[in-house]
Design goal:
Elements: E1 4-8, H1 15-37, H2 45-69, E2 72-75, H3 76-96, H4 103-128, H5 150-168, H6 172-197, H7 229-247, H8 256-272, H9 292-319
Antiparallel strand pairs: 1-2
Helix pairs in contact: 1-2, 3-4, 3-6, 4-5, 6-7, 6-8, 7-8, 8-9
């Protein structure tokens, strides 16, 4: 486990040309991707000069910011979240081509989903833990310190996706179906970040694969071996991804693949909650000993299953 993957800065002067090369490579990659989608446009001397100016200025700004804020820490959870976003975006781009979507569309979509998902995840977590923020309301904004509820993230993401679909005049059920496997794939990578970070940990156990987390993490308190529930989650989401990919061509009702994702995720989350501890496994008092996540999983899973079956039945009636 490693909460901080990289600690960097301040950088020496010779890092500047390296940053310039990296930014130039990124700009070249973007230009190449753009040329694949549309006819390449000739670059004039003015365009070359402006591009070079932006690269040089951007490199100087990056070096200035890093040296000003140094040392800068790259946390494992955030890094794996970015890996998950990249993997999900790749899958969306791969499967969305047949429906007229391009990479730029998916980048816009993912950024909106990320923002709305984080807002939703934070709001739900804060509502469930209001007592923790009464004395210092400003900490509501400290999302980098943890405190995100997955079910709230899904709700926020659905709202953001619906708004995106309405603005772009895209079928929301189609967008949801294309997003379902990508969401499972991205979550699988993000849960590996949870393992490296030591959050979302499991109960004490003495199985051969039990993990002793570092004492600097909440999971490592007492030095007891625990279930690596984060890895269980990563594996479960990988399986959900495979199931959705397999069933996608057979889905007859648009939107049902996303509803199936909600059902499968709810089943996994309900079961794994029996092995989870800490803030991620708080008991929901009215339905004790069920946890908050188990209660949400039951509600979302049952609602999604009923809705899916009703929509499928409606199609069968229309075809008779």
């Amino acid at each position: 486990m490693r909460q901080v993957l990289i600690e960097t800065g301040p950088w020496p002067w010779w890092a500047y040309p390296i940053i310039v090369l990296v930014l130039t490579a990124i700009a070249g990659l973007v230009q190449w991707l753009e040329s694949r989608r549309t006819a390449p446009r000739p670059l004039t001397a003015t365009n070359w000069a402006l591009s070079a100016l932006f690269v040089l200025a951007g490199a100087a700004l990056i070096l200035l910011v890093v040296n000003r804020l140094a040392p800068i820490f790259v946390h494992s959870w955030g890094a794996m979240l970015l890996v998950g976003l990249a993997a999900g975006t790749w899958w969306l781009n791969k499967t969305g081509r047949d429906y007229g979507f391009n990479l730029e569309d998916w980048i816009d979509f993912v950024l909106i989903i990320l923002l709305s998902g984080v807002v939703g995840a934070r709001l739900v977590y804060v509502l469930l833990h209001l007592s923790e923020y009464g004395t210092a309301p400003i900490t509501l904004l400290y999302v980098w310190q943890g405190g995100l509820a997955f079910h709230g993230g899904v709700a926020g993401g659905v709202i953001g996706g619906y708004i995106f679909a309405r603005v772009r005049k895209i079928s929301f059920p189609l967008l949801a179906d294309l997003s379902a496997p990508a969401l499972a794939l991205g979550t699988a990578f993000t849960r590996i970040g949870c393992f490296l970070n030591g959050c979302c940990y499991g109960t004490v156990c003495h199985l051969p694969w039990a993990v002793v987390f570092p004492p600097t993490t909440e999971a490592g308190a007492g030095g007891m071996p625990r279930h690596p529930t984060q890895l269980y989650a990563a594996a479960a989401n990988a399986v959900i991804f495979a199931i959705l990919v397999k069933l996608a061509p057979r889905t007859r009702v648009r939107g049902n693949l996303f509803l199936l994702y909600l059902v499968l995720y709810s089943i996994y989350r309900f079961l794994v909650e029996f092995l989870r501890r800490g803030a991620s496994a708080v008991v929901f008092a009215p339905l004790a000993p069920l946890t908050q996540a188990q209660t949400a999983s039951i509600i979302i899973g049952v609602a999604a299953l009923v809705w899916m079956l009703l929509r499928r039945r409606k199609l069968e009636v229309e075809e008779e």
